[in-house]
């Protein structure tokens, strides 16, 4: 298992729910505004998944698959078992930190918390493994109900062709972590896959599947529907899809990890979108995401 990867700084906004007495004072108004929009500087870093990350990774997978009939414990074991492939997001260990700072951050997060997972699992290899079999079945079932017959046929042909090597990109994280962290994660993942593919054919992917989380504000009157992606970078990734399929998961009580992902999501319907990408798109994925986020 490789060591820690470079740190990635990110800001996490924290709402201050305390009330203040009303005074006719500009200084007081400024203080209240500052409290309500307080930013806490938190350092994150990535490293390869380890056994101690099991419960954190499984929790993140649960947020993605909800009530799907997939052995997530077995899938988590497969993620951890991959040598030097994928990253978990963890809080960096500060070199020097005041006790007061420790107390503030302890209220927000627990030690050893896994804040995200970005990895790829081969679903063409070891098809007899229960979780892989269930995952493939889940994808085809949802694609059947959420897309047109032509797109479904393309997906089936890709999955059934024994010459293809299909991977599923799992890209899950806490909802309040900025999308910019995905750039170094994708860069690292591509390098790891490239190095591994020189030794093992199971990493020479021809296609990449991914299941995207988003919420939809349904159309009302003349106002069209509007989609909001849980992971902002996945909006641009979807544009490169060969085919895509979407389905509502409203009945499965979808909630965000560590709090609501928007202030008021009462009018939003949770969805999933299955996308199929040519593996060549993965080469420039980090650059594509970087350009999109800088716009």
Structure description:
With 295 residues, the chain is an alpha+beta fold. The protein has one domain (7-14, 40-293). Helices cover 35% and strands 24% of the residues. It has nine helices and nine strands. Strands 1, 2, 3, 4, 5, 6, 7, 8 and 9 form a nine-stranded mixed beta sheet that branches. Helix 2 (54-65) crosses helix 3 (72-81) and helix 7 runs antiparallel to helix 9 (285-293). The protein is globular and about 55 Å long. The two termini are 36 Å apart. Belongs to the BCP1 family. This is Protein BCCIP homolog. It holds the Pfam family BCCIP. It comes from Hermetia illucens. InterPro entries: BCP1_family (IPR025602).
Mean pLDDT: 82
In angstroms, what separates the terminal alpha carbons?
36 Å
Share in helix: 25-40%
What is the general shape? globular
Strand % is 15-25%
State the main characteristics:
single chain, alpha+beta, 24% strand, globular, BCP1_family
List the helices and strands and how they pair.
Elements lengths: L6 E8 L11 H11 L1 E10 L6 H12 L6 H10 L5 E5 L7 H10 L7 E7 L7 H17 L2 H12 L5 E8 L8 H16 L9 E11 L8 E4 L4 H5 L4 E6 L19 E11 L6 H9 L2
Question: What's the short story on this structure?
Answer:
By secondary structure, the chain is an alpha+beta fold. It is built from nine helices and nine strands. It has one domain (7-14, 40-293).
